[in-house]
Structures are given as C-alpha cells and as structure tokens.
Amino acid sequence: MDLMNLSSYWYNLPEELIAQTPLADRSSSRLLAFDRQSGKVHHGVFTDIEGFLRPGDCLVINDTKVIPARLWAHRAGKDEEIEIVLLSQEAGEGVVWKCLTRPGKKTKVGTELILGDGLIKGSVTDIAEEGTRLISFSCERPFLEAVEEIGAMPLPPYIKEKLADKDRYQTVYANEKGSAAAPTAGLHFTPELLESLKAKGVHIEKVLLHVGLGTFRPVKEKDLRNHKMHSEYIRVSAESAARINEVKAAGGRIIAVGTTSCRTLESAADENGVLHAYDGQTDIFLYPGKKFKLIDGLITNFHLPESTLIMLVSAFAGYENTMELYRQAVEQRYRFFSFGDAMFIC
Question: Which residues are within 8 A (CB) of 241 and not within 5 positions of it... i.e. 6 or more apart?
C-alpha cells in the first residue's frame, strides 16, 4: 500500500450513515475508543470518555466560534444572487476577508457588492489562490454584528437538512468568533460532562484555531506530498502553554479535542515536545510518516474519504488501524461526519 497515494484513503460509506442532524443530547453520541498499544477496541457512548481519562490528564479544546459566514449579495443594479462564504480575515487595516464566491465569474476584481439591503457593502480587491476572492467590506455597524444578523451557518455540502437551532453547530465553550466551520469533535461535550471531568482531576485548557479553507478543502493531488494546506489562524497563550507543559512534565497525557486542537498544538510545539506561546498562521499537514511532538491522545469524529483529516488520524493511529476502525464503524452503522459519532485514540 502506497501511503502517499490519495486513493489509499478511500473507503466506502453508505450515504445513509452521513448524519444530517445533531442528536438531542450532545453526549449521547456513540464512541469508538482505540488503544494504540494494546490494540483494544471499545464500542460505547461518548460519556464513556470519563472512564478513559485519568486524573492529571489535560483536554485541550479549541474555543473558536463559528460565524454565520454564508452570505448573499447582488451587484449594484443587478438582480442575480451571489453567494459568499467568509473564510478568514486578512491582517492589516480595514475589514478584508478571503471568501469563496459563487458564481465566481460574477465577482471579478472591482465588482461592487451589496449585502442585506445595503447593511454591508463589499468590493472585490483581488483573486487569490484557487479562485478565492479578497473582499473589502464596509459597514456602519461592527462587521461581525451585521453578519450575525443577515448570515447563515455555512454547513458542509453533505448536510442537506436545515439546522433548526444554529447553536447546535457551536461547541458549548465556543467563545471567539472567526470560524467558517465548527471544530466538530467538541460538539459532543456538555457543560455537565466538562464539570464532571474537572471534578475527576482532568485539566482543561483552551487554544484557538479559526477553521478556514485549510481544514475542509479537498485534496486534489494524487501524491499527498504535493498537497498544500491553506493557512489558518492559531493562537496559544503563554499561560496555556505553561500549564500544558506542566501537565506533560508531571506525566499527564495531552488529549487534543479535535484535529484543529491537534494541529494547533503540533504547530506550536518544538522538536522536544515543549509547547510555546504562538500567535500567527499554520499550514501544518500531518499524514503518515509525520511525527507528533506533543499529543498523547485524540478525540475526533469520522472524516470524509481522501480528506486531510483521515490522513491525520492515520498518522496518529497508524494507517492499517485507522482503515480497520473505519470498516468497523461502517459495519456497526456509526453516524459519520460533522454531526456524527466520535473516536478516542490514545
């Protein structure tokens, strides 16, 4: 098996196993746990996670908050609708965002856009990589406040049903606005479960990755080594870095909640596994052959075939193990993708 070949990460998934709606109780989702040393597999429910975590372990969560980044606009004097998805805010002066637009041919450089009956106005200033647009926005109110009013949650294209409660596409600890998609592994946690874990002696630390194009853009290169991740904004505070390092030094395990937390930690850790404060961009791509410098465990959902996320899981759990676990999950009819069930790998 050529682990650098994109097709090695394909698996057959019946369409009916793609979760369309979240469960009524976040923590009632199923959990597939895998011990890398013993090879033991556990099938249960997500609340079983409490039994797998030990006093002194550290859960690292991503407290980004999804913005209703799906917007609709029209050109001045034109009636046709243009869809805009906000991906990431550009550094510098003004309110400039990298965006996906559809149809792209209607958003050439210089195109003036009107959103929400004039609540927001935009101007296309540049065409960036893979056809994304840089759009400079103006608004008399705070921009994200206006976006909250007129935007919709940018659910992945495989979710066909309308989301009844937009808060269900947020983690219960979501705090800082900026993501175009949810860090979905965190959707399984409830305030009660988090408090129970704290009472057990599990540390909980926050990092930040604003989910943008890099996380969900499909891999088009047949050789993984030729795939270029788009950069995403991450931040690790000095305080969080110090506490996570203390846990590691004391023998506790660092458990990343989601691939976004994992990528943030691995980006900010040095070759000796020491985590440092960081505020900037990452385009880290973890696939088999890449070494993990810091994390000891990973909580994650089941990911799309041939995605960078299943490659990350394969790098951490081992390729053969990962494909076998996915085979079992399909066989036992787990729910897949954003609103689906969870894995714990340690």
Answer: 268, 275, 276, 277, 278
d(CA 276, CA 239): 10
User: Which of 251, 256, 291, 254 minimizes the C-alpha distance to 271?
Assistant: 291
Domain carrying residue 34:
6-66+165-345
The amino acid at 81: E
Domain count, the chain: 2
Angstrom CA distances, 98 to 35, 120, 137, 210, stand at 40, 16, 11, 13
pLDDT tens for 71-117 read: 999 997 788 899 999 998 988 888 999 999 999 999 999 999 999 99
User: At which of 150, 180, 208 does a domain end?
Assistant: 150
H or E stretch including 42? strand 41-45
Q: What one-letter code names the amino acid at 319?
A: Y
Q: What is the pLDDT of residue 166?
A: 85
Q: How high is the pLDDT of residue 215?
A: 65
* 282 closest CA partner among 78, 62, 118, 76: 62
Q: What is the pLDDT of residues 122-170, one digit of tens each?
A: 999 999 888 899 999 999 999 999 999 999 988 888 999 988 888 999 9
Given a contact cutoff of 8 angstroms between Cβ atoms, the answer to whether 321 and 36 are in contact is: yes
CA dihedral 1, 304, 131, 112 (to 10 degrees): -170
Contacts 24+ apart (CB under 8 A), 161-166: 161/20, 161/21, 163/21, 163/22, 164/21, 166/68
Work out the burial of residue 30: count CB atoms within 10 Å of its CB; fewer than 13 is exposed, 13-18 middle, 19 or more buried: buried
Tens digit of each residue's pLDDT (9 = 90 or more) over 166-200? 899 999 999 999 999 999 999 999 999 999 999 99
Q: Are 103 and 225 within one domain?
A: no
Flag whether pLDDT at 217 surpasses 80.
no
Calculate what percentage of the chain has a pLDDT beyond 70.
99
Torsion angle defined by CA atoms of residues 151, 157, 158 and 162, in that order, rounded to the nearest 10 degrees: 30
Is 1 contained in some domain? Answer: no
